Amino acid sequence: MNTIQKQYGTFDILPDKVKVWQYVESVIRKITVNYGFDEIRFPTFESTELFTRSVGGTTDIVQKEMYTFNDRDKRSLSLRPEGTACVVRSIIENGLVFNAMPLKLYYIANFFRHEKAQKGRSREFWQFGIEIFGSDSPSADATAIMLANSVFTALGVKDVKLHLNSIGCDECRPAYREKLVEYLTANSEALCPICKERLQTNPLRVLDCKIDSCKKVSENAPKSTDHLCSDCDEHFKQLQQLLTECGVDFVIDTNIVRGLDYYTKTVFEFIDESIGAQSTVCGGGRYSKLVEILGGPKTDAVGFGMGITRLLAAMENSGSIPELKSAPKLYIAPIGNRAKQKAFILTEVLRANKIYAECDLCNRSVKAQMKYADKIGAEAVIVMGDNELDIGKAQIKNMQTGESKETELTSEALINLLNF
Ligand code: ATP
Ligand code: MG
């Protein structure tokens, strides 16, 4: 029979890798809980309108990346391409927007985008994300950034750099946008075909284009930070001051605009050049209009999304992926049917006492069992047959030192021995 392969742009996470993922997730959860965030989980698919309305009709995500389909009831649904819209939909629908503020939520979830698969880019990918609702203070932006920074520090990521920008608000952005369009129009010859289109629909996105000729044009483009209203300017300065006082290095990078329509004021990315072309490990910013756009009350918000595979790549380059093994403390190798039953029962009692033990499940010879015990890294091995059962004692062999000593074949004796 022919075999079936995984879909383009998806990947399996095999047991050895899962251990690393679990480690990363546990570090993330510990830090995030320490920052006072609660986890939220939301559906894998939502109404397509949720994303067209929030992420925006002029973005890559909505224009060409969403997995959109009609279900059997002819509803237009989309696999979630990102988390913020889902969180906002949920807190409005469930009334969490009326909770005591700030409301601090996080998620670790998979998302789906129909993209060209390459290093650091897949069609199903995982993000750790956080959202802080109900604060317009720069200290909320700083909290989001400090939290991401703490995750990088805790996971030993060395080469990641914080790029910071402010893209202003409804007050100051229209005038800036006009100046930018004027400049880009004058230089439109040098823009790539997609950016020529962006110039009409989403001109800020031109600044974000990775194509060389567009990058060159962007270098001399008017900067949003030179056109901020006094409120945005003060907000941006205070944020920088907080980060500086916390000892976080950053660069002001006016080409960071983020792809999504809903950002205001602060936008930021953590970039690790060492992991290749897809170097943005974490992207986020302030989006104080989104809750209203989705039908809720006016609510300030700031958050980020961090790509787990890119985080792992950054850890790999920093040499900070730990070796994670789960080896049994004891392997019991029985000879004969009586011993098999006893080995099984002893193993179960040890497990019930939180000691990781294994015994033979494959009816192997003693020699093959010893080889297997060695392969799975068992710390100690007991071989037992009828003789050992009759006298109630057996030799326990330390697999590292090769030394053996006698032990009683009772669960109490083994628990005592192995708990040392
Ligand atoms: P990019 O510019 O790389 O396309 P983006 O702006 O589309 O990123 P966001 O929507 O801000 O990305 O998502 C936040 C983070 O999620 C990214 O910085 C990245 O680490 C990760 N990410 C986004 N898309 C993918 C993908 N297709 N595969 C793997 N990780 C991804
Ligand atoms: Mg993208």
Number of strands: 16
Q: Name the CATH architecture of the largest domain.
A: 2-Layer Sandwich
How many structural domains does the protein architecture include?
A: 2
Major sheet: 8 strands, mixed
The CATH fourth-level homologous superfamily of the largest domain = Bira Bifunctional Protein, Domain 2
Structural class: alpha+beta
End-to-end separation in angstroms reads 51 Å
Percent range of helical residues:
25-40%
CATH class of the largest domain: Alpha Beta
Strand order of the largest sheet: 1-5-6-11-10-9-7-8
Structure explained in plain terms:
A hairpin with a 5-residue loop joins strand 15 and strand 16 (about 405-410). The model has no long low-confidence stretch (mean pLDDT about 95). The protein has two domains: about 15-170 and about 230-320, 2-Layer Sandwich (BirA Bifunctional Protein, domain 2); about 330-420, Rossmann fold. It contains 15 helices and 16 strands. The protein is of the alpha+beta class and about 425 residues long. The protein has an eight-stranded mixed sheet with strand order 1-5-6-11-10-9-7-8. The longest helix is centred in the N-terminal third of the chain and has 20 residues, at about 15-35. It is elongated and about 90 Å long. It binds adenosine-5'-triphosphate and magnesium ion (MG). Magnesium ion binds near residues 60 and 259.
